[in-house]
Design a protein that fits this description.
alpha+beta; eight-stranded mixed β-sheet; seven-stranded mixed β-sheet; globular
C-alpha cells in the first residue's frame, strides 16, 4: 500500500480535504499529553471509503480516540487485533459505520484507522490523545516534536507487509490552519521555552514560575516540524511527581490509584570514574541511501542530511581516545567498510578514515540497514575493548521492528548510539535502536546544536556499562508501590532515568516515601536515593 500523505485518505489513496488542526499540549515535568483534533470535509458528490493515517512518536501510548462523522459520534475501544478486524468487517458488511485503528506492524510510529463511509458533503472530526516521554537534550532541554509528516518509508525487498508512505508538501500548498498551545508544569521553575517556529511570549501562571502557557504565533502553515524545547531551572535535581487517580475510577484499579513518576540523575562516584581507562571498539554505520541527499529541513534547503551526518562523524573521529579501535561502514542497497576489520586508532588510521569520510555521498541507493548490522554483529569482539555502535540515518526504512529486534538480540555484546539526521527522522527506529542496545538517541535537525549532542554521546560511550540495576521503595505502613515502567537497562552519568509506579493502599498520617536505585559500576556497588511526598501535587491552574 502506498499512501502519499498522512491524515484521512480515500481507498483510491487520495486525501480527503483537511480544514483545520487544533493541538493542545500538557507537559507535566518530563511527560507530555497531546490532544489533537483534525477536521475534514468530503467535497465529493458520493460517499468516500476512508482510512486515517497518523504518525506518532515510537514510544507514545494512545489513550483516547474518537471521531464525529456527520451526526455519528464514535469512541474507540482497545481490543486484540484479530478480534477487532473481524468485528469491523461484520459491521461494514451490515451497512453500519465502523472504525478500526491499527498500528503498522513494521513501523510502530504510523497508526492507520479504517473510518468506513463518509457521506457526501459531510464533515469528519477526529480527536486523538496520546502520552509520550520527552527526551532530554545535551543542553538539558526537554524536546517535544509534533509529528507533522513522516518521511517516505522505504520497504526493502522481501520485507513482509505493505508500506505506508508519507511525504512532505511545500507550505504554499497547505490549505488548512494549525492552532497549537502548550501548558507546562513542573516541581522546578521553568526558565524558558524555545522553538524552531515563532511563539507568542511565555505566560507564567504563578509567582514561583512552575506553571506556564505558550502558543504558536498566528499564521503558521505546518511547513516544518513543530519542535519545542523546554528548560527547567536546576535540571539535574531529582524530582518526584505524584498524580492522583481518576475520581471516577474505583480505588485499587489501574486508573483509580495515584501514580508516582520519579526522575533521577545518577551521579557516579568520582574515584571510580577517574580510575577507568578510556577504551573501546567504535563501529560507525553511515546511511548513504538516496534520501540522505535531501535537505536537513525546510529552513536551510542547501544543507543536506549526508553533509550533516559527515560533519557529525568527522567530529567524532577527531575526538576518539588514543589506543581504542574503530571501523566505519556505510550502506544503501549494499554496504561498504573502510577497513576489513576494526583497527587501532592512531594519527595514521585517523587520517586515512577522515579522507574517505569527506568523500562520502548519498549514492548507494535504498536503505538496507539489516545486512551491514548482521555483518558487524558477526565480527568477533576485541577483548577488553567494549563495542560501541554509532548509527547515522534519516530512518527511512520500512522494517523498523526487524532492525530493533536484531539490535536487541545482540544487546549483550555492544551498546548502540543512534543519530536521527534531518527533520522527520523516524523516532520509532532511532529511539528503538538506542533503547534495545542500551545506548542513547540523538536527533540532529540543524547545525546549531550538533556539537554538544555528539560529544554527549561519545562521553556516554566512554562510560562503563552499569549493571545489576534495581529499585527499592521505603513507604509508610499500608502503602505499596508497583512499578509500571519497563526495567532500566542503561544508566549514564548525569542522564535522566524515569521510573513510574502505582501507589496502592491508604495511610492516615505518614506522607513521606523514598525510592532507591542500586547498581554496580565496574564491580563497585553504588546507589542514589530520592525522598518524596505521597500527597498528589495541587493543580492551581
Amino acid at each position: 500500500m502506498m499512501v502519499n500523505c498522512c491524515g484521512l485518505i480515500t481507498d483510491r489513496k487520495e486525501p480527503v480535504p483537511l480544514k483545520s488542526i487544533e493541538v493542545q499540549l500538557e507537559v507535566k515535568d518530563h511527560v507530555a499529553t497531546v490532544v489533537s483534533t483534525l477536521n475534514y470535509e468530503n467535497k465529493e458528490d458520493k460517499p468516500l471509503e476512508a482510512v486515517f493515517v497518523f504518525p506518532l512518536p515510537g514510544d507514545a501510548a494512545v489513550c483516547h480516540f474518537s471521531a464525529q462523522i456527520g451526526q455519528t459520534h464514535i469512541v474507540a475501544e482497545v481490543k486484540e487485533k484479530q478480534q477487532a478486524r473481524e468485528e469491523y468487517d461484520d459491521a461494514l458488511s451490515s451497512g453500519q459505520q465502523a472504525f478500526l485503528l491499527e498500528e503498522s506492524d513494521q513501523s510502530p510510529d504510523i497508526f492507520s484507522l479504517s473510518v468506513g463511509s463518509l457521506p457526501p458533503g459531510e464533515s469528519a472530526s477526529i480527536r486523538l490523545e496520546y502520552v509520550t516521554e520527552l527526551a532530554v537534550q545535551a543542553d538539558d532541554g526537554l524536546r517535544f516534536c509534533l509529528p507533522a509528516v513522516l518521511n517516505p518509508r522505504y520497504q526493502p525487498q522481501g520485507s513482509e507487509g505493505p508500506s505506508v508512505q508519507v511525504t512532505s508538501v511545500p507550505a504554499s500548498l497547505v490549505p488548512y490552519s494549525l492552532s497549537f498551545s502548550a501548558r507546562v508544569s513542573s516541581p522546578r521553575p521553568i526558565s524558558k521555552v524555545e522553538s524552531n517556529c515563532s511563539l507568542e511570549p511565555l505566560q507564567f501562571l504563578n509567582a514561583d514560575q512552575t506553571q506556564a502557557t505558550v502558543k504558536l504565533a498566528a499564521g503558521h502553515k505546518f511547513d516544518r516540524d513543530v519542535e519545542l524545547l523546554i528548560y527547567y531551572k536546576d535540571a539535574h535535581q531529582p524530582t518526584a511527581v505524584v498524580e492522583a487517580g481518576q475520581a471516577s475510577a474505583k480505588p485499587g484499579s489501574l486508573m483509580g490509584d495515584p501514580v508516582v513518576m520519579v526522575s533521577l540523575y545518577p551521579e557516579f562516584p568520582q574515584d571510580v570514574m577517574s580510575s577507568l581507562a578510556s577504551c573501546g571498539e567504535f563501529v560507525f554505520l553511515m546511511d548513504r541511501s538516496g534520501s540522505m541527499g535531501c535537505p536537513m529541513n525546510n529552513s536551510t534547503p542547501q544543507e543536506t542530511r549526508i553533509s550533516s551526518a559527515r560533519d557529525t562523524l568527522l567530529l567524532l573521529l577527531k575526538s576518539l581516545p588514543m589506543g581504542c579501535y574503530f571501523n566505519i561502514y556505510s550502506f544503501g542497497s549494499q554496504f561498504e567498510h573502510i577497513f576489513p576489520t576494526s583497527v587501532e586508532y592512531s594519527e595514521k588510521t585517523m587520517e586515512e578514515a577522515l579522507k574517505k569520510v569527506e568523500n562520502m555521498e548519498a549514492d548507494l541507493g535504498g536503505t538496507e540497514i539489516l545486512l551491514p548490522l548482521k555483518h558487524i554483529y558477526s565480527q568477533p569482539c576485541i577483548p577488553k575493548q567494549p563495542r560501541q555502535l554509532f548509527i547515522f540515518t534519516d530512518g527511512e526504512v520500512g522494517n523498523t521492528k526487524e532492525v530493533t529486534d536484531l539490535v536487541k538480540m545482540n544487546a549483550g555484546t555492544h551498546r548502540c548510539f543512534s543519530f536521527g539526521i534531518g527533520e522527520g527522522a523516524s523516532s520509532a527506529l532511532i529511539n528503538g535502536m538506542a533503547k534495545e542496545g542500551g545506548g542513547h538517541a540523538q536527533f540532529i535537525t540543524g547545525t546549531d546544536r550538533m556539537q554538544p549532542k555528539v560529544m554527549q554521546s561519545l562521553r556516554f560511550a566512554l562510560q562503563p556499562a552499569v549493571e545489576d540495576i534495581s529499585v527499592s521503595w521505603d513507604l509508610p505502613k499500608g502503602v505499596s508501590a508497583t512499578i509500571l515502567s519497563p526495567p532500566i537497562t542503561a544508566m549514564f552519568q548525569g542522564q535522566r532515568s524515569l521510573i513510574y509506579a502505582q501507589l496502592t493502599g491508604q495511610t492516615s498520617d505518614a506522607t513521606d516515601g523514598s525510592a532507591t536505585v542500586k547498581y554496580s559500576l565496574e564491580g563497585h556497588p553504588s546507589q542514589n536515593q530520592l525522598h518524596f511526598n505521597l500527597k498528589p501535587a495541587e493543580d492551581t491552574g
